[in-house]
């Protein structure tokens, strides 16, 4: 143990030195080539933090929950105003998603992006109409129509596995990414689920798999489209980033002639995301941080706020979102979107996966897409205002509290121990609340966001 500790001591400052010194050099070298959209500072910032911390700290404030004022409805510029879909060139095979599948064939990416949304195809789900995000559809269900995606026609009452390829050669390889589609026998909204935009975030992959494989197309109203692994190269390398070291979730809605990340983002957004009425983008904590299952949602957007009410037992944290995030870009395109955060990166965590699947099932029921066998209570999301507490000293973080613990203001949450001087620095809670996210025990630098404290907020609309 002693040896191990000493070994870690000599190793870490060296590595952190490399990390700190190496990155600006990398970024500076990069700017001399073709990219000047990222300064060295933003490169380092992107690696030091992610949306997990940033989107909470830099969020626009939530509209006062105690006032009677409802959130202002946001003006919608929906994709449904765009041109119609061209007809599909083939009918997708109806397959049982539970069966083992052969490796996917690449689907030729459409030259002209498909820009019609699903909203256009269903007369009862017009953009801007309340029923998209509101209570279950109470009218007699209408038979569904075919759904055209990625040049394939998915017939009503069938499920299939398509393949999306951004059409970009990455190190000589362009591997298609599976896209699962369940087109219900009855009409309804289109719910999309995206996972592993950060390639090392694994819980979402399994949440999507389980959610979709349990759907019976004969009993579904509407459609569910799932892309379990958006960042396939990152997934294969166990990396959060794309092969060009960019964070894909900073490049939406993308552009067809920008950086690699811009192009991949553009292809995904135009070919798939614009076809959705609702989107849940599933992430985990990053950099050895873990989260209670929670949503990040712009509670100032009335549609998004209503949408969150369908998720059972989720902590809901307001965040207006940062530019370039899939969530922000999709909301701007008129698609009701939240981010789901479940657990930590690099791990498969059964209880987090179960919570995610249950919550999505609750959402689909609330949206009138499925009905469960027996009666469940109303979904019970819990709304939080939140703050990150940062370590003020570098050293080794030892937590005294566990994820989900209720804490009071001034309570010691953990210590940072300086292994060189033996100094111990307590980290205290800034408020009464609950630990909704935290760093696992690890070596930290001063300024590392260590504890995410949530204080319960008013439930919107009540
Ligand atoms: Zn992520």
UniProtKB/TrEMBL annotation:
SUPFAM superfamilies: Zn-dependent exopeptidases. Keywords: Hydrolase, Metal-binding, Signal, Zinc. It comes from the Bacteria. Residues 1-27 form the signal peptide. Residues 49-142 are annotated as: Disordered. InterPro entries: AstE_AspA_cat, N-alpha-Ac-DABA_deacetylase. Residues 55-65 have a biased composition (Basic and acidic residues). Residues 69-88, 108-120 have a biased composition (Low complexity). Residues 187-361 form the Succinylglutamate desuccinylase/Aspartoacylase catalytic domain. Its cofactor is Zn(2+). This is Succinylglutamate desuccinylase/aspartoacylase family protein. It comes from Marinobacter qingdaonensis.
């Amino acid at each position: 143990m002693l040896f191990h500790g000493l070994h870690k001591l000599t190793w870490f400052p060296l590595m952190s030195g490399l990390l700190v010194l190496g990155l600006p050099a990398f970024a500076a070298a990069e700017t001399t080539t073709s990219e000047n959209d990222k300064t060295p500072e933003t490169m380092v910032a992107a690696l030091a933090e992610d949306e997990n911390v940033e989107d909470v700290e830099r969020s626009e404030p939530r509209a006062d929950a105690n006032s009677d004022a409802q959130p202002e409805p946001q003006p919608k510029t929906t994709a449904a105003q765009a041109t119609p879909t061209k007809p599909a060139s083939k009918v997708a095979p109806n397959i049982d998603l539970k069966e083992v599948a052969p490796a996917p064939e690449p689907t030729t990416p459409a030259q002209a992006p498909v820009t019609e949304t699903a909203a256009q195809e269903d007369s009862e789900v017009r953009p801007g109409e309340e029923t998209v995000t509101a209570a279950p559809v109470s009218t007699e269900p209408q038979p569904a129509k075919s759904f055209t995606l990625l040049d394939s026609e998915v017939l009503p009452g069938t499920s299939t596995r398509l393949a999306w390829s951004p059409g970009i050669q990455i190190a000589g390889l362009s591997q298609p990414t599976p896209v699962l589609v369940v087109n219900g026998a009855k009409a309804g909204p289109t719910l999309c689920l995206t996972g592993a935009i950060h390639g090392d975030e694994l819980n979402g992959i399994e949440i999507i798999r389980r959610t979709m494989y349990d759907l019976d197309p004969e009993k579904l109203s509407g459609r569910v489209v799932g892309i379990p692994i958006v960042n396939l190269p990152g997934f294969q390398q166990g990396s959060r980033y794309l092969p060009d070291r960019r964070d894909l979730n900073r490049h939406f809605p993308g552009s067809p002639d920008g950086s690699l990340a811009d192009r991949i983002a553009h292809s995904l957004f135009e070919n798939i995301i614009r076809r959705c009425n609702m989107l849940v983008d599933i992430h985990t904590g990053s950099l050895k941080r873990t989260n209670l299952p929670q949503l990040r949602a712009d509670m100032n957007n009335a549609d998004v706020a209503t949408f969150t009410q369908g998720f059972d037992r989720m902590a809901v944290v307001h965040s207006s979102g940062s530019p370039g995030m899939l969530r922000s870009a999709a909301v701007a395109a008129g698609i009701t979107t939240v981010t789901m955060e479940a657990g930590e990166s690099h791990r498969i965590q059964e209880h987090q996966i179960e919570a995610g699947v249950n919550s999505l099932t609750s959402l689909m029921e609330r949206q009138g897409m499925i009905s469960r066998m027996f009666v469940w209570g109303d979904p019970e999301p819990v709304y939080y205002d939140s703050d990150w507490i940062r370590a003020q000293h570098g050293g080794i973080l030892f937590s005294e509290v566990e994820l989900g613990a209720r804490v009071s203001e001034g309570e010691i949450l953990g210590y940072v121990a300086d292994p060189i001087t033996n100094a111990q620095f307590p980290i205290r809670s800034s408020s009464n609340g609950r630990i909704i996210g935290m760093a696992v025990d690890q070596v930290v630098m001063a300024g590392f966001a260590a504890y995410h404290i949530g204080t319960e907020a008013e439930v919107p609309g009540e």
